[in-house]
Specification:
Layout lengths: L2 H28 L1 E6 L14 H12 L5 E3 L4 E8 L2 E8 L6 H12 L6 E7 L7 E4 L8 H10 L5 E6 L14 H5 L5 H20 L5 H9 L6
Parallel strand pairs: 1-4, 1-5, 5-7
Antiparallel strand pairs: 2-3, 3-4, 6-7
Helix pairs in contact: 3-4
Length: 228
């Protein structure tokens, strides 16, 4: 066998093996999701409307009998689920809401995440209770947690899923909105009945979501609205 023919065979072998490796990595990436729910740590905040991201992930974890453990290097509580051939990595930042970007930055750097795999779950006072809005990029919309993530990642190009908690009531004396007391107020029993249906729908959609059905799932979620 001449040196040229041998070199050609080795080159072809390396090319096809490298291609197969790239395909395997691509499949692994498509089958792995990093879902970060935003909120404030501490029992006093546990049932707050602002902690809706935490509550969703707790529902997700409980449904599949997984537990959260504290990962200091990721500045988050972490739970891992394997459903069929997919891995779902759930994170609840151990920072306060306004410093959420510190945890997200740590997670992105540790796992070397493609931002298409990242999903941020937040509350939204500008959406009616039970309304879902999925966007693949955009500004903070005045949400301090998103604002800090955008600042720390230096990009607005990441998936965010907003869950409506409704507008805050107006203070009769000042005629101003009681925004802080609303977002840091506890979710009522009536609101919970609505939000439980939202959590169920979101969890099902995140499990089904893949590059082929992405637009369909996003449209399905954006048209979803549980009023009661």
């Amino acid at each position: 066998m001449c040196a040229h023919t041998h070199f050609q065979k080795v080159s072809n072998y390396l090319f096809y093996n490298f291609k197969n490796l790239k395909d395997k990595i691509s499949i692994m990436s498509n089958n792995e999701k990093f879902i970060i729910g935003l909120g404030n740590p501490g029992k006093e905040y546990h049932k707050n409307r602002h902690n809706i991201g935490f509550i969703l992930l707790e529902n997700f974890s409980e449904k599949y009998e997984s537990k959260f453990t504290l990962k200091n290097k990721l500045k988050s509580w972490y739970s891992e689920l394997k459903i069929k051939n997919s891995t779902y990595r759930l994170f609840m930042p151990n920072t306060f809401m306004n410093n959420s970007g510190d945890a997200v930055r740590a997670i992105v750097d540790w796992y070397k995440i493609d931002l298409a795999q990242l999903f941020i779950i937040v509350d939204d006072i500008d959406l009616p209770l039970g309304k879902i809005r999925f966007r693949k990029k955009g500004g903070s919309g005045g949400h301090n947690g998103l604002k800090d993530i955008i600042n720390k990642l230096q990009t607005e190009n990441f998936n965010r899923i907003r869950i409506g908690i409704g507008a805050p009531p107006i203070n009769e004396k000042t005629r101003n909105y009681n925004t802080i007391s609303h977002v840091l107020g506890n979710i009522s029993l009536k609101e919970s009945l609505t939000l439980d249906k939202v959590y169920k729908q979101l969890i099902e959609s995140l499990i089904k979501l893949n590059p082929k059905n992405e637009n369909h799932i996003i449209n399905e979620l954006n048209s979803f609205h549980r009023k009661n």
